[in-house]
Amino acid sequence: MKLIDIIRFAGKAATGYPTRTVLMLLAMAIGVGSVVVLSALGEGARRYVIGEFSALGTNLLIVLPGRSETVGGAPPLLGITPRDLTIADAMALRTSSAIRYIAPISVGAAPVSRAGRERETTILGSTADLYPLRQLEMAAGRFLPPGDPERGEAICVLGHTLKEELFGSAPALGETLRIGDYRYRIIGVLSEKGQSVGLDMSDIVVVPVASAQALFNNPALFRVMIEARDRDAIERARKAVVRIIKERHDGEDDITVITQDAVLATFDRIFAALTLTVAGIAAISLAVAGILIMNVMLIAVSQRTSEVGLLKALGTPGRRIVTLFLAESAILSLIGAALGLVIAALAIWVMSLIFPQFPIAAPLWSLAAAVGVALFTGLVFGVLPARRAARLDPVLSLSRR
């Protein structure tokens, strides 16, 4: 029997029992579709987080006060901070040739008011280096000027959304607003930047770091952001930061330096494991589909006993009958997998319309894996019905017993 004959036989058998065929196709399509969609959600989450951290800039290092590891002894078990990070600590890092930009950060919330309009918003204190480091863009005016970071001028830069809420369509450059108990002159307005690792850059006020420290009455820095000169300089910059701060803090190793690559690699591993986990959960539905195929094919064997008996009476060997039934299972599995891919593509398209900021996309491996598992499942669960059909007695089969 030729391959085309096997395919034609399987096709006629499938179309001869439309209800049975539809059930099998639907089960396989749902299984494949769920695998692809859940894999796409995991991949989308991974891309979203990586994109958020990449939006911070490139070749970044983040210096945090305190050690990240735990220590022994009685609670609290987290490492303490013998000394705060200061502006002087941040500026001392300029001596390293591996570092391009240094942006000390001070963050807090304060009421911002102007002409009777007031709202609580995030105040970000930094220096001129924050502009290239965070890849910011100006809609009007200029960013914080370079100069002595310990000298706090009464100037500020508004986020795009905040400017619209306080000034509307009126120009904001040169105007003053009150932040807490201080007045600041507006020198610039940022372009729309959107969310970046939980901080809405369109809804903030940027002031000199010394002004922020005076505003919040806190001489300590929240963190220091650093950009290395290139990718190869990241490790040299990290070692320089640890060495310089340790020297300034009387030999105390009391900071944590996080590199952007390390953060991205960690999230990449986490979301890769998450994607595989949800894909594995979805693959259970393929096993359920395979069980349904087996049950339906067992019923099909009882419905087609005379057909099988005729084949055996004509001398068809048992292994050929097994091949015919397995071919039918394989064809139905592949068609069901194709329908599942179509369903998954439609679901992903709809979700991308509902959540345009979420970069949902199905990884190529999930497509191949879903189709491969579907075919494997169809063949595995089709073996029992096929072997049962091959063992039928031709005389009893022809007599429909």
TrEMBL record:
GO terms for molecular function: transmembrane transporter activity. It is a multi-pass membrane protein. One of its GO terms (cellular component) is plasma membrane. InterPro entries: ABC3_permease_C, MacB_PCD, Macrolide_Exporter_MacB. Residues 21-243 form the MacB-like periplasmic core domain. It comes from the Bacteria. The chain crosses the membrane at residues 21-41, 270-300, 321-354, 360-384. It is found in: Cell membrane. Pfam families: FtsX, MacB_PCD. Keywords: Cell membrane, Membrane, Transmembrane, Transmembrane helix. The keyword Nuclease does not apply. Residues 281-394 form the ABC3 transporter permease C-terminal domain. Belongs to the ABC-4 integral membrane protein family. This is Putative ABC transport system permease protein. The lineage of its organism: Bacteria, Pseudomonadati, Thermodesulfobacteriota, Desulfobulbia, Desulfobulbales.
